[in-house]
Design brief:
By secondary structure, the chain is an all-alpha fold. The chain contains 15 helices and no strands. The longest helix is centred in the last third of the chain and has 23 residues.
């Protein structure tokens, strides 16, 4: 089955379980998430998780906000028994609260990226907090709670947090020289560029510029919402054949009627699809959520790194067999 067929099939399945008010771009992004992770959507399981969340979360909880489909899909794809999955997420959020994280949507997104082993939580939270503090030394006003998800994800990687934060700042400043615009999206991109190495790599910015200009030359949008995706392509050192394959898949998806008005959503789905066959622990990263919808931008980034975390673990496990 082609990716187009898989997206079409999964999109139809999601339409049955999502409420009528969910934006089509969100549904497309979630379809890409399931397809890229090669997960089958179970209508009964999805509905069960949704029901448990309604019972356990307060009416003003982020779990019941516009981000609800994201949380349900992520817990569904995780494979844990529904009640346990929801309870564990709420327990992680409580642990973050007790560790002085401010409670908002970003805290819940960060909780999705914590490991399921409770004995690891203390160190993960401490590393995330330290990385946030180190980042604030360079970007005091730009660094805020919307950086929680990346701080949690990157804090779990090897490397000194102070070095990583300094490297992020260097990338940020260098990218601005090449007409990448300042803001949260550029900060996220600079964070992503440290994904494979906490230390500064001289050619990484130039690689990102080449990728951006190459995408632009074939009329693929490269505005701020696409910055993190470009960052992943650069950090993972994708070669010309891989990049061309992504463009081909993007064009195939963008030609579908489903994507008529939402071509932006096709780029990260194409990226995740082309990388899913790789056997390397890093390049198996399945980056699957992309939408230009402003209110879901932060959720989009969290979903991408959540997918990377899941597929990297899977790849590491398969390599040890």
């Amino acid at each position: 089955m082609t990716i187009n067929q898989k997206i079409e099939e999964t999109f139809k399945a999601l339409k049955k379980v999502l409420s009528w008010g969910v934006d089509k771009r969100v549904t497309l992004s979630l379809a890409g998430y399931y397809v890229t992770l090669d997960k089958e959507l179970s209508e009964s399981r999805f509905k069960e998780i949704e029901t448990i969340i309604k019972k356990k979360a307060g009416i003003f909880s982020p779990l019941r906000s516009h981000l609800n489909p994201l949380f349900v899909a992520t817990l569904d794809s995780g494979g844990l028994e529904p009640q346990l999955a929801v309870d564990l997420l709420l327990e992680k959020v409580e642990a973050l609260k007790n560790s002085s994280f401010k409670i908002n949507s970003y805290t819940y997104l960060a909780a999705l990226l914590m490991s399921d082993e409770k004995e690891s939580w203390a160190e993960e939270m401490e590393r995330a907090k330290q990385l946030m503090e180190d980042m604030k030394k360079h970007h005091r006003f730009l660094t805020s709670t919307d950086d929680y998800p990346y701080a949690m994800f990157l804090g779990k990687l090897d490397g000194d947090t102070a070095v990583r934060a300094e490297t992020m700042n260097r990338y940020y400043q260098e990218l601005r020289k090449y007409k990448f615009y300042s803001g949260n999206e550029l900060q996220w991109m600079s964070q992503i560029l440290t994904y494979t190495n906490a230390e500064y790599e001289e050619d990484l910015v130039k690689r990102a510029v080449v990728i951006r200009d190459g995408l632009k030359s074939v009329k693929i949008k490269t505005s701020a919402p696409q910055y993190p995706i470009i960052g992943f392509m650069a950090a993972l050192e994708m070669d010309e054949d891989q990049l061309n394959a992504i463009v081909t898949t993007y064009e195939s998806l963008a030609s579908m009627k489903l994507f008529s008005w939402y071509k932006d959503s096709a780029l990260s789905i194409a990226l995740g699809w082309e990388m899913r066959a790789s056997k390397d622990a890093y390049t198996t990263a399945a980056i699957s959520i992309a939408t230009s919808l402003e209110m879901l931008l932060q959720a989009q980034q969290a979903m991408m790194i959540s997918t990377i975390a899941a597929t990297s673990v899977a790849a590491s496990s398969s390599n040890t067999v």
